[in-house]
Amino acid sequence: MSLFSSSKLGSGTRTGGGATAAPAGVTGGLASGITSGRLPTRQLGLRKTAKITDEEFEKLADFIYNKTGISISIKRKYLLENRLGARLSELGLKTFKEYYDYLQLDKNRAAEMEVICEKVTTNETSFYRDARQLGIFQNEMLKETLAKQEALGRKELFIWSAGCSSGEEPYTLAIMLHEALGMSIIGWNIRITANDLSPAMLRLARAGVYTDYALRTTPKGIIAKYFDKVDAGYQVKPRVQKLVQFGPVNLSDPASTRRVPRSHIVFCRNVIIYFDDAMKKKAITAFYDNLLPGGHLFLGHSESIHKLSTAFRPVPKPGAICYKKEE
C-alpha cells in the first residue's frame, strides 16, 4: 500500500524534457492545451473542485488517521484536495467542512470511509515482489519452520499477510508452500490469513484474477503451474486459493488485530513506511503479540523497526533483513 501515487493523478504520460504527452485519442488544439498545461477547465468539461483550508485539512487528516492509521502530512494537502474534491461534488457538498460534518454525522459514514481509503491509498503490488527477500524466506526461514514443525509432530503452519492489498503477496506465499512441500502438502494444516483495510481490494483478492502486469516478475513455469488462463487474465488455481483466508483488519485498532489467529510468520511489507512513529509502534506490537515464539517478521526493504522496538532480534541477510521473536 502506498499513498497518493502520482501515476493516478492524470492520464497523460511523461516524456523527455519534463513535458506531459496528451492521452491517446486527443489531438489538435486540445492536445496542445494539455501538453502546455494551459487548457481551460471548461474545455475538458471538468468541475472546479473545492479548496481545502488548513483548518479543514487538519480536521480531516486527523479523522482519517484516527480511523485508519494513515498519516497525511500538511505537505500533501493539495493531494488530499485533489483526490477528495470531486467527491464533494458527487455528494452535493460545497466545502470540506461540510464533508467533515458528513463523515461525523451521516448514517452512511462507514461506507464513506471505504471511499476515502480508495481515494487516499494506492495499491501497487505484484506477484514475487522483492525476489531477493522472498528467496531468503523460501530457502531459510520457511525450510527452518517447516522442519521444526515436523520434528515436533505438528504439521501446521500459520502465516499472516498484513496489508495484503489485492492478494498478490499471500498467493505468492501459498505458491511457495506448494513448491516447498509438493504432494505432502495434503498432510499439512496450512493457513494464510490475509488482511487489508480496503473492502474493494479484498474483493479483488478473493476473485483471484490477475493481469500480465501483476505477474510481470513471476517465473513462467510458476504461471503455467498455478494459474489458469481466462478472458480477464490469469485465474489462481483453487489449490492455491484454498490456503488463503481474506478478511478486513485495521492495524490501528488493537481489537481488530487481536482477532487474527496466532502465526509462525508475519509479512507486512510497504505498509508501515506510511505510518507515523506512534502508529508504527502500535503495528509492531500487534505483530509481536501475534507471532508464536521463534516466529519471523518480514517488512518492506525500506522499512525498519530500529529505534521503535527492541522486542525483536534483527536477522540480517544479504540484501534483506527480517526480525525474529525469541523462543
Automatic annotation (TrEMBL):
Record region (Disordered): 1-21
Top-tier EC class: transferase
PANTHER family listed in its UniProt record: CHEMOTAXIS PROTEIN METHYLTRANSFERASE, CHEMOTAXIS PROTEIN METHYLTRANSFERASE 2
Pfam families membership: CheR, CheR_N
Signal peptide as annotated in the record: none
Residues covered by the CheR-type methyltransferase domain: 45-327
Claim: Methyltransferase is one of the keywords in the record: yes
Reactions the enzyme catalyzes: L-glutamyl-[protein] + S-adenosyl-L-methionine = [protein]-L-glutamate 5-O-methyl ester + S-adenosyl-L-homocysteine
GO molecular function: protein-glutamate O-methyltransferase activity
Keyword Transferase found: yes
Keywords attached to this entry: Methyltransferase, S-adenosyl-L-methionine, Transferase
Enzyme Commission code(s) on record: 2.1.1.80
Record's protein name: protein-glutamate O-methyltransferase
Organism per entry: Oleidesulfovibrio alaskensis (strain ATCC BAA-1058 / DSM 17464 / G20) (Desulfovibrio alaskensis)
Biological process according to GO: methylation
Compositional bias per record (Low complexity), positions renumbered to this chain: 1-12
InterPro entries, alphabetized: Bact_Chemotaxis_MeTrfase, Chemotaxis_MeTrfase_CheR, CheR_C, CheR_MeTrfase, CheR_N, CheR_N_sf, SAM-dependent_MTases_sf
